[in-house]
Design a protein that fits this description.
With 493 residues, this protein is an alpha/beta fold. It has helices at residues 68-83, 85-88, 91-107, 109-120, 124-145, 149-152, 173-186, 201-212, 227-235, 248-258, 283-295, 315-328, 347-362, 394-397, 413-421, 436-445, and strands at 31-32, 34-36, 39-41, 48-53, 58-64, 156-160, 163-167, 190-194, 220-222, 241-245, 264-268, 274-277, 307-311, 366-369, 384-387, 404-410, 425-426, 428-432, 450-453, 468-469, 472-473, 486-490. The strands form six sheets. It has a seven-stranded mixed β-sheet with strand order 14-15-16-13-12-18-19, with helices on both faces.
């Protein structure tokens, strides 16, 4: 007689054992100073700001607040380096520095990943497996371009433009720093970088790596502080080019400040990406793509798939499976390797997300949130889904920048294209189907800079990234990411 196999109870009360990342080998200084002309130095005004761990609300370190005199010193140092050793250095030699920096980032990758998660709140798995490797990859990629600029643009001669001012956001601190710094250096420019005020630590660790790599003083300068530091950097007459990644509101302010001036600028701004699921898609694969598109990095992603469009015939199936998958997501300690969704970056951002959830309820949307238990300390928000929403709802039109998804249905390809384009933004999008013809029709007609097919949130340093409409102007990544840092002169010989 054979025994019957016991049934598998998927609803059993079980959980993962904690898998905390050790932080014993990571040492943070009590305070960090500005990095100007190859040295760390305190701000002239002596002001410091606390950098807070959003998961614990504890202070990690104090970070200097730059003033106008500090910015002046940083721009002056960058100009001297550009006119001196860096500007006169052979391109192949500049490339060697970028290769060296990339390798050193890899050598310190575990330390950088831990600090990134502590300072920003993102899960260690994402910092370890995505953010830090991609940062190193950008330096490797642009290192290879350094000595090829003479051949990259036939009939034209590539020249550097001078001193760049770069302002980066808090959602991908080290990756955004690499995204900005690597092409600027490869093109032969020098720069002043301003990290986000809530996540400055990995940029300052990078400054230490640059110093150890032997980068000439003044080539990269890092000034920390709030938005006023960024404003001063944008308006400084010694800056030849501004590169900004951040909100659309601030991007518009930068455009107004630079209107009528000869300075170049690139803006990578907000988004409200449409993630489109057709009935012929591999539904289970699409569910994972939806989760990755909106809950990756707590939704703190400019290209997050925050609008989900599902073909009407499979809407009920997709919604049900998505809810079941949301229940499996682990919200908690960013340094636990089991964690899927970490802490919201700051109390201000948490209040913004909560305000939009209330708006969604007031507008008549049907709210669903996973039954996860949120920690008592820190800034947290449960994965959230809104159905029964329309194109006019604010949660559909406005960027929330959090783990909040708005779901709509459609019947035809033309209908979903029209709905997807009905937003002020045009940064990214996604399409899920097994029909190549649908993929090509959607990608040709949606006004977005990046559209993924049967995947989402995949990045590569060789691929250009940027948006249309209020999502910005210019491109970063790939050879296109070099162009804003170059002047192309017609070769008359």
């Amino acid at each position: 007689m054979t025994k019957e196999n016991p049934s598998l109870n998927l609803q059993a009360d079980w959980s993962y054992d904690p898998a905390p990342q050790s932080i014993e080998h990571v040492t943070l200084k009590d305070s960090y100073d500005l990095f100007i002309n190859g040295k760390f130095r305190p701000s002239i005004n002596g002001s410091y700001r606390n950098s807070i761990n959003p998961a614990t609300e504890k202070t990690l370190s104090k970070v200097a607040e730059a003033g106008s005199e500090d910015i002046e010193s940083a721009v002056k140092a960058a100009r001297q380096a550009y006119e001196g050793p860096w500007g006169q250095m052979p391109a192949a030699e500049r490339g060697k520095f970028l290769f060296r920096i990339a390798r050193m980032i890899q050598e310190r990758s575990r330390e950088l990943a831990i600090i990134e998660s502590m300072d920003g709140g993102k899960p260690i798995r994402e910092s370890r497996d995505i953010d830090i490797p991609l940062a190193a990859a950008h330096f490797f990629y642009y290192a290879g371009w350094s000595d090829k600029l003479d051949y990259a643009f036939p009939g034209r001669q590539a020249k550097s433009i001078g001193v760049a001012g770069q302002i980066i956001p808090w959602n991908f601190p080290l990756l955004m720093a690499a995204w900005k710094i690597a092409p600027a250096l490869a093109a032969g420019n020098t720069l002043v970088l301003k990290p986000a005020e809530t996540t400055p630590l990995t940029a300052l660790i990078l400054a230490d790596i640059l110093r150890e790599a032997g980068l000439p003083p003044g080539v990269v300068n890092i000034v920390t502080g709030d938005g006023d530091v960024g404003k001063q950097l944008v308006r400084h007459p010694g800056i030849d080019k501004i590169a900004f990644t951040g909100s659309t509101v601030v991007g518009k302010e930068i455009m107004r400040a630079l209107a009528g001036k000869s300075r170049r600028f690139t803006l990578e701004l907000g988004g409200k990406a449409a993630n489109i699921i057709f009935a012929d898609a591999a539904i289970d694969q699409a569910i994972e793509g939806i989760v990755n598109s909106i809950f990756f990095n707590q939704g703190h992603v400019c290209c997050a798939g925050s609008r989900l469009f599902v073909e009407e015939s499979v809407a009920q199936e997709v919604t049900q499976k998505l809810r079941e998958r949301m229940e499996t997501l682990i919200v908690g300690d960013p340094l636990d390797k089991n964690t899927d969704i970490g802490a919201i970056n700051s109390i201000d951002q948490l209040k913004r997300i909560e305000a939009y959830v209330e708006i969604g309820k007031q507008e008549g949307g049907d709210l669903y949130q996973s039954n996860c238990v949120l920690p008592d300390t820190g800034y947290w928000h449960a994965p959230t889904l809104f159905s029964n929403v329309s194109q006019s709802h604010r949660i559909v039109q406005e960027e929330i920048f959090g783990p909040v998804l708005a779901v709509q249905t459609f019947r035809t390809v033309d209908e979903v294209i029209e709905k997807a384009n009905n937003t002020p933004y045009g940064l990214s999008g996604g399409v899920w189907t097994d029909k190549g013809a649908k993929i090509f029709k959607v990608t040709r007609n949606i006004r977005a800079g990046v559209i993924w097919a049967n995947t989402f949130n995949k990045f590569d340093p060789s691929s250009p990234f940027g948006g249309y409409k209020e999502s910005g102007m210019g491109r970063e990544g790939g050879v296109e990411g070099l162009l804003p840092y170059l002047t192309l002169q017609t070769n008359t010989q």
